Please model this.
Amino acid sequence: MQISMKCSVAVHCLIFIYEARDKAKVTSTLLSKSTGCNPVIIRNILSSLKKAGIITVARGSGGAKLCKNPAEITLLQIYNALEPDGLKGIIGIHQCYGLKCPVAQNIHKVLLAPYCKIEDSIKNTMNSITLQSMINDFHELLKYAD
Amino acid sequence: MQISMKCSVAVHCLIFIYEARDKAKVTSTLLSKSTGCNPVIIRNILSSLKKAGIITVARGSGGAKLCKNPAEITLLQIYNALEPDGLKGIIGIHQCYGLKCPVAQNIHKVLLAPYCKIEDSIKNTMNSITLQSMINDFHELLKYAD
DNA sequence: ATGAGATGTAATAATTAATATTACAACAAA
DNA sequence: TTTGTTGTAATATTAATTATTACATCTCAT
Model:
């Protein structure tokens, strides 16, 4: 399976918000057109990012703004904002109330440590990726566009 | 979202197969009882593990056996055996044939490098975890069971 | 103050992905 | 040649994700 693409949409929105700063009011309708997602999905994502202190959203008049420097916003913060449980349990474990079988009784515990290691390595990598770096890459791409 | 739990079931099966070596014939029915999964699911998983050269499965008479030393079987091998595309694209990217919006046109490329980094870090960690180490942990748990 | 354009959120629907089931052909060995 | 098994296709079920509808609430310009 695949990690929800909400994360990708969120990054899209954040880059958009950054690029539009002082230029245009960034509404959920606008972002929904740019991302191809439903405006309610966008509003939910923005709402999560807002709760995490990454952006502010103006009620009524509308418009989203970053409330941190892009260099201080990491992919991990974004991901955690969207997923209430973070990366915990990102690899599913089957439920086996496995009767007498000792493997069934212990498999959950056996997998715990390996899966935590994996979660931690994802965390570390996500933490090393900033919105700033992605914005930089975006600008590089713009330069060489035809 | 969460990575398919096929991986967990596969590890369960492999530990079971290892523990049962020279003791019992490990059939898909037996594994399905221990894991709580449908026997066809088990057969599909075993089939994938077989194609990857991790186990042998006796046609007709039945029974699965490891065909490598557990120390030489890594979690990455197991995962790759199960998922045809490996970890590629584990984090989904939304499709936005984004008209004129430059963010929409470039978001895919912007996310490519960060997501590859994440995939690589998962790969490295999975590669450092062997079936042997999980079997060892399993034995430790058995020691201290009531 | 009020109308236009937003957000926030609940409820529901539609879609997609994961898992389970049924069915049966092919196989191996007693 | 019967019994128990694997391999696999086809289908059904279930669960998760994404989309939609609906509407209360808010802000500001007029």
Notes: The first strand of chain B starts at residue 55 and ends at 57. Residues 102-127 of chain B form the longest helix (26 residues).
